[in-house]
Amino acid sequence: MSSHSIVIGLLELAQATVEVLLDVARGIKLVWRGLMSQCWQINQVAVFYCGILWVVKAVA
Question: At the top level of its lineage, which domain of life is listed (predicted)?
Answer without folding.
Answer: Bacteria
